[in-house]
Amino acid sequence: MSIDLQHFILIDNHAHPLLKRFLQLDAVALRQSFSESRSLALLRDHLATSVFYLDMLNRLSILTGRAGEDAIIEFRANQSEQDYLNLLWDDVSIGGLVIDDGFRAADMIDLQKLSRLSGRPLFRCVRIENVLERCIRVATSFDELASLFVQGLSEAGMQRTVALKTILAYRGGLELEPVASDSAKSDFERVKRIASESPSWRITRCALYDYFLLVAFELAADNGWPVQIHCGLGDDDADLRLSDPLCFGPILRSESYAATSFVFLHCYPFVREAAYLASIYSNVYMDLSLSTSLVSPSAELIIREALAAAPSSKILAGTDGHSTPETHWYGAYSWKRALTAALNSLLAEHFIDEQQALEIAGRLLHDNARLLYGLEELA
Ligand SMILES: [Zn+2]
Question: Per CATH, which fold does 10-23+79-126+220-378 belong to?
Answer without folding.
Answer: TIM Barrel (3.20.20)
